Amino acid sequence: MKEIEEFENWVDQVKTRELPKCPESVAYNVLRRVRNEASAPEQSDWAWLLSLLPNPGYVAAMLLVAVSLTSSITFMATKRQVTTSRSQVLASAALDFEFFSQTELLHFNNK
């Protein structure tokens, strides 16, 4: 019980003690930062985006990669489409589907 009273007395003494003054340099730096933040203009979204990019060479390299990927994918898709069309024509000729389009063999109107 005595220990608790001593502890409470010590806490009360610490509460009544005055805090040391803030050093002048710290107060000056804090106030300077507050003034700078208040006077700083807001950045637009584009400026924020451009600040993320490290340098123009990086942007150029990414554009080059994008263009080369797009052109190679387009080339491969076109080549596959031509090959597929040619395969369809060859399959149609092999299965002789033109037989159904010949009208001289089917005489429905003649009796």
Question: Would you give an account of this structure?
Answer:
The model has no long low-confidence stretch (mean pLDDT 80). The protein has 4 helices and no strands. It starts with a helix and ends in a 16-residue tail after the last helix. It is elongated, with a radius of gyration of 42 Å. It has helices at 2-16, 24-39, 45-52, 56-95. With 111 residues, it is an all-alpha fold. The protein has one domain.
Overall pLDDT score: 80
Instruction: Estimate the global geometry from the Cα principal axes.
Output: elongated
Distance, first to last CA: 127 Å
Order of helices and strands: HHHH
Q: How many DSSP-defined strands? A: 0
Unreliable sequence segments: none
Q: Report on the biggest sheet.
A: none
Q: Which percent bin holds the helix content?
A: over 70%
Query: Helical segment tally?
Result: 4
Entry keywords:
single chain; 111 residues; mainly alpha; 4 helices; 71% helix
